[in-house]
Design goal:
The chain is α+β, with helices and mostly antiparallel strands and 155 residues long. Helices cover 29% and strands 37% of the residues. The chain has four helices and eight strands; from the N terminus they run βααββββαβαββ. Strands 1, 2, 3, 4, 5, 6, 7 and 8 form an eight-stranded mixed β-sheet that branches.
């Protein structure tokens, strides 16, 4: 099995929509609008990245700098196709983006997720990747759905 991590290319979009449908991260029909700036504006600071197995995208990640900060980034999305979950791809994706941000002199990476019980596996994933649970904002997403903020110093 040939595995590779790299930035997303326009021809990856159909396969990435299947990743989104499989993972349930967000509706795949939103992807075209979300990624259009990155694909069409060479000055975009967005970072969209993927993991491929045998030249097929099986994961998606999206990271961008936090406005009004120096070297702080937010990982807005990361998902692995359901059949590849639990195989280490997510960890490799985190290692990839952290390394890329270090090369860009990134200092901090923030990750946010839901506080709902069915997101415990996600929160444990970030802890396993050495992120510190830094804050909980009660009822951020909806009534009874807190935002949990994780933090990691990159340098």
């Amino acid at each position: 099995m040939d595995k590779q991590l790299r930035r997303i290319l326009k021809n990856d979009i159909p396969a990435l929509k299947m990743v989104l449908d499989s993972s349930g991260l967000f509706p795949s029909d939103l992807l075209d609008d979300m990624i259009s700036g990155y694909l069409n504006d060479p000055s975009s600071t967005d970072i969209w990245f993927t993991a491929l197995v045998d030249d097929t995208p099986i994961a998606i990640g999206y990271c961008a700098p936090e406005r009004l900060t120096e070297g702080t980034y937010n990982l807005y999305a990361i998902a692995v196709a359901k059949i590849h979950q639990g195989t280490g791809i997510g960890t490799e994706m985190m290692t990839y983006i952290e390394g890329l941000l270090r090369k860009k002199k990134g200092r901090i990476l923030i990750v946010e997720t839901s506080g709902k019980a069915d997101f415990e596996r996600t929160r444990q994933f970030y802890r396993t990747c050495d992120y510190t649970e830094q804050a909980v904002i009660p009822e951020f997403y909806d009534e009874g759905d807190d935002k949990v903020v994780f933090w990691k110093k990159l340098g």
